[in-house]
Specification:
Layout (H helix, E strand, L loop, with lengths): L1 H5 L2 H15 L12 H5 L5 H33 L4 H57 L3 H43 L1 H48 L1 H6 L3 H53 L5 H43 L19 E11 L2 E11 L4 E6 L5 H8 L7 E6 L2 E2 L5 H6 L1 E4 L8 E2 H6 L7 H10 L3 H6 L7 E2 L8 H15 L3 E5 L7 H15 L3 E5 L3 H6 L2 E6 L2 E6 L1 H7 L1 H8 L7 H6 L6
Parallel strand pairs: 3-10, 3-11, 6-9, 9-10
Antiparallel strand pairs: 1-2, 1-4, 4-5, 7-8, 11-12
Bound molecules: adenosine-5'-triphosphate.
The site of adenosine-5'-triphosphate has 15 residues, from helix 1, strand 1 and helix 11.
Length: 617
């Protein structure tokens, strides 16, 4: 079953290696600081970003106004004006400071609003894509790495768009405006400052290659560390049970050290760039003021103009410096964007048909010469054909790895067969709308996934519109009602993450109730009674029989209890059907089946265990 496949560690490990080779950004992978594609991610928040730009321009405007007012006031003081002549200037300067404070506050609010809108849009887009990609993609990726992209990656993009990109135009225009003004005041000083500003603007471009490498490495270490920590948290019980936590802890410590080094290298380059820019900025201002003093001495510049140079030269560089600071914190977004694009570009394993066929009228299922391989050249299902009548119960048995779960994954269209096809009611699955197909199939899986929420929430997954009496009927039929009633808050009791506060059997009963509520014409039972104790197994089996009545049922069976109730049993070996028949027929003529029973791969049911019948055959 899909859940089983998803949590099978050997497969996950293999997929992890594959995904790491393919998904870790290498040096130079980082995207350019501004690319059309990156900017397209801002769709829906551009209005907010434009407002951020205006705010930045307005803030620069207050600095310029303040510079002019102060220069004028100081000039008047030098020329012996009365205090009353500069009182208006002082009031204006204070007012500009106050206006700027309000503007900065509004700019911050705008940035937060931009970020919030961007994050919610982008995450919705990524989750929609993840659902479209389905289990096939999630199996091939590390949960932690996907989480790093969807959670941390999106946070980084927030900084990029709400701080850096939103302020970019404002800062550039503000600096350009001030420089143009200073060019008019004095072309020599203006050109000197322009050269300094261009050098500052060019610094990140020069440092980009160096920083891209560091940033990619930093980000890939981050994703890896996140994935490994999540792995350890999820596998805590296993690590403790095998006394393997110390070894795993050492591995994590080593990875943390790698991450530390990645961070230091990244910050070192970033600081180098910041330092270079600070030097250029201070050097430029000092040169401009020095030149201004010389020009004043030569009589080419008035006192007011020199004061303007003194006060505004700093302002010409300030927006650029602010932008650099924003760029510094937004830079990891460029690597994070690589992960986001990778997810958005991923091709789903299956596609919805353009013009879906009408819903099938019958619940018969036919596999026609189906061949499917996860890895080229290693088919998990080979040229397999079987027709299952509407309402028939067919059990699939076989050794581990025989291909049982793969058949179910193909039926649910998590994957498409490379050869042959599957029909439902005579219609090829590839011609059916995927949601329509999945609505027609209810699954009771071995590893039941319960979501964090109340028992009721988990039951409603089967039928969101079900009322309390339907929930209770289903729970009763699944043998779950009694234990649910005994829970502290009955149906409103919150089950922990993955239903951790319930026993395996209880979880499975909820899964059975959920499938009952879904009331789909096709039922997939994946060793549905495996977590149920012997006392309740017969009871649950009866509930399942009632559930299966009138439905086409595919049962992946490890127990004789399931098998004995099936209309037919299909014996699989290496992806092929080797025998088909009833339990009695197979016991009689199938050596493979007899071997399975003898090897106890098919465990005795509660009935056979207590009656002692059947298994010895
Ligand atoms: N996601 C996957 N990627 C690569 N190979 C896979 C994947 N899932 C299953 N396989 C391989 O396909 C073959 C059939 O696996 P499948 O899970 O269908 O067997 P199964 O009969 O259900 O086994 P079990 O009873 O142990 O669950 C096995 O060789 C298995 O290793």
């Amino acid at each position: 079953m899909n859940m089983r496949i998803a949590f099978d560690s050997r497969r996950v490990a293999a997929a992890t290696r594959e995904s790491e080779a393919g998904r870790t950004a290498g040096p130079g992978d980082a995207v350019a600081p501004v690319t059309p594609r990156l900017l397209r991610l801002s769709a829906g928040v551009r209005g907010w970003m434009a407002l951020g730009t205006l705010m930045t321009l307005a803030v620069t405007g207050t600095y310029v106004g303040q510079g002019i007012v102060i220069a004028s006031a100081v000039e008047r003081i030098f020329t012996g004006a009365e205090w009353s002549a500069i009182a208006g200037h002082l009031v204006a300067a204070v007012a500009l400071v106050a206006v700027r404070s309000v503007l900065l506050w509004l700019r911050e609010l705008t940035a937060v609003a931009t970020g919030a809108a961007l994050k919610s849009r982008l995450r919705r887009r990524l989750y929609t894509k993840l659902f479209e990609l389905g289990p096939a993609y999630v199996q091939g990726s590390r949960t932690g790495a996907v989480q790093a992209t969807v959670v941390d990656g999106v946070e980084k993009l927030d900084v990029y768009f709400s701080r850096f990109a939103a302020q970019f135009a404002g800062a550039a225009l503000g600096a350009a405006g001030i420089l143009a003004g200073l060019l008019v005041v004095d072309p020599v000083i203006g050109l000197t400052l322009l050269a300094g500003a261009l050098a500052i603007a060019a610094t990140p471009l020069l440092a980009r290659r160096l920083q891209a490498e560091r940033s990619s490495w930093f980000w890939s270490q981050w994703r890896r560390l996140g994935a490994d920590h999540l792995d350890v948290l999820q596998g805590m019980t296993t690590l403790k049970a095998f006394d393997a936590s110390a070894g795993r802890g050492r591995e994590l410590a080593r990875e943390s050290w790698d991450f530390y080094r990645a961070s230091i290298r990244f910050v070192a380059v970033a600081n180098l760039r910041t330092g270079a820019m600070g030097l250029l900025s201070s050097g430029g201002i000092a040169l401009a003021v020095g030149l201004g003093a010389v020009r004043l001495a030569q009589g080419a510049l008035g006192v007011f103009d020199l004061l303007l140079v003194l006060l505004l030269a700093r302002e010409a560089f300030r927006p650029l410096e602010e932008l650099q600071k924003a760029y510094h914190s937004a830079y990891p977004a460029l690597s994070a964007a690589a992960g986001v694009f990778e997810l958005l570009d991923a091709e789903p394993a299956v596609h919805d048909p353009r013009e879906p066929a009408p819903a099938p009228r019958s619940g018969s299922v036919t596999f026609e010469n189906v061949t499917f391989a996860y890895t080229p050249g290693r088919p998990a299902v080979r040229n397999l054909s079987i027709h299952i009548d509407e309402g028939e119960t067919v059990a699939f048995v076989g050794r581990s790895g025989a291909g049982k779960s793969t058949l179910v994954a193909l039926l649910l269209r998590f994957f498409d067969a490379q050869d042959g096809g599957i029909t439902l009611g005579g219609i090829d699955l590839r011609h059916l709308a995927i949601p329509e197909l999945r609505r027609r199939i209810a699954v009771v899986a071995q590893a039941t996934y319960l979501f964090h929420g109340s028992v009721r929430d988990n039951l409603l997954v089967g039928d969101p519109g079900a009322d309390q009496s339907r929930l209770e009927d289903a729970a009763r039929a699944a043998g779950a009602h009694q234990f649910i009633q005994r829970l502290p808050h009955g149906y409103d009791t919150v089950v922990g993450e993955r239903g951790a506060t319930l026993s395996g059997g209880e979880r499975q009963r909820i899964a059975i109730a959920r499938a009952l509520l879904k009331d789909a014409p096709i039922l997939v039972l994946d060793e549905a009674t495996s977590s149920i104790d012997a006392k309740n197994e017969a009871e649950i089996q009866q509930a399942l029989d009632r559930l299966a009545a009138g439905r086409t049922t595919l049962a992946i069976a490890h127990r004789l209890s399931t098998v004995q109730h099936a209309d037919r049993i299909v014996l699989l070996d290496h992806g092929r059907i080797t025998d088909v028949g009833t339990h009695a027929e197979l016991l009689e003529h199938s050596t493979g089946y007899a071997r399975l029973v003898a090897a106890s791969t098919l465990e005795p049911s509660a009935e056979t265990r207590t009656s002692g019948s059947g298994l010895s055959a």
